[in-house]
């Protein structure tokens, strides 16, 4: 007599709820790239503010 086979999956339902490994890695890469873009934008904004102040000071100095 053969043993009865179970219809349940061989892995737990917790594993079903988590995305596959490759999707998690892709998500981490996307988060890292978004963070890099945010830092670059912030740096550019600060540089533009500094340049704007220097330009205004230069215009006031000339006139």
Give structural attributes.
63 residues, mainly alpha
Structural features, described:
The chain has helices at 13-17, 21-62. The chain is 75% helix and 0% strand. The protein is rod-shaped, with a radius of gyration of 28 Å. By secondary structure, it is mainly α.
Q: Taking all residues together, what is the mean pLDDT? A: 81
Radius of gyration: 28 Å
Shape: rod-shaped
Structural class of the secondary structure composition?
Answer: mainly alpha
Low-confidence stretches: none
> In this structure, how is the largest beta sheet organized?
none
SS strand fraction: under 5%
What is the string of helix and strand elements? Answer: HH
Calculate the terminal CA-CA distance, rounded to whole Å.
102 Å
Total beta-strand segments: 0
Number of helices: 2
Give the % helix: over 70%
List the helices and strands and how they pair.
Elements: H1 13-17, H2 21-62
Task: Quickly describe the structure.
The chain is mainly α and 63 residues long.
